[in-house]
Predict the structure.
Amino acid sequence: MTHYYIWTIGCQMNDADSRRAAEELQRLGYLPTPRAEEADVVLLNTCVVRQKAEDKVYGRLSSLKPLKERRPEITLAVMGCLVAPETRRDLGRRFPYVDLWLPPSEVKGLVEFLGKRGEPVPFTYPVSAYVPVVTGCDQYCTYCIVRLRRGRERSRPMKEVLEEVRCLVERGVQEVTLVGQIVDSYGHDLPGQPTLADLLGEVHEVEGLWRIRFLTSHPNFMTDGLVEAVASLPKVCEHIELPVQAGDDRILKRMGRRYTVSQYRSLLAKIRGRIPGVSLATDVIVGFPGETEEEFKGTYRILEEERFDVVHVAAYSPRPATPAARLPDDLPPEEKERRRRALEKLQANIAEEINQALLGETLEILVEERRKGKWKGRTRTNKLVFFPDDNDWRGKLAPVQITWAGPWSMQGHLNAPTPPGG
């Protein structure tokens, strides 16, 4: 029996690509294995949005060299943002033992390379799945390499998205997350220019689907219509990821973000006013070229005052061929790390306070899987919850009373004797 192993790093688009790759490999007759050493096909799905991610990719690639030397017959393939026309030749020289270099989302190339192998193997679909609706990016954020690696923005036709969602639901998926580099710009390049709000309305009508999410949004495309869709469509979850990146207007301008701190704050107020109980997540970058201590404090203030549920903090690292890479990277790594840790400490305290306000509440959890003896699932507001029970709750909606809350997850006990239909 032949086996495959997939290693994924990076964004939700990569997660979606890896799921598609796994489906195709099992159609070819490969079985999944958790260890590269046991696989006949090894696929690395890569990310280079930060230097730290790129370094992890190189480390994983180097670690596979002895395996390829011992077993030259295995197929070693690399997919994702590491691979671009301008990088392939250098990558081929540096890692000559790699059999196949594939650009982002190029699952078809892997299938064609392997050809027909054996009898299809049934694929176990997750409870919650990512569905790409727009790929690439047309924005010019000066620090970001995604536009250079994934190309121009391309929206998938609504009919195609709906067909994928229906197929996933037929296979047991209860929640879909519509994803794109800038998901709320969906549709501007399609005939008739449908919007993400229009797409949410159509996906909402898919029978058997319980929950809908979307990410990641850009403040410049978060329209009143999209906010209204989240507020009015029962299946759309009350959770919005809206990266701010910095809390200072000068830095935002140097980043190419095209909004001000005041405009961003006004947008948050509008969202919270229309969607009571909404949870908000954001991304920030510290140590952007030229960021002063006072400008960093502006970022600190917006997190302190707006009190996001989740904040993803990254230290700036220059990305090749981006406009920001031409600016002096003038902050020492130690200072970037100090600023990053200060924001993470602040956010940990805020998130814990937000979550502890839910102690004693009974929340509806969509259960995804069992992990370390407990069931794991998420609330509509995307909060991670664990609870113990001997029954099978996978793919069920569980009423869980929260008994413990930390900054990153919560725990509770069931307020139901058995799963629905159990």
Q: What stands out?
A: The mean pLDDT is 96.
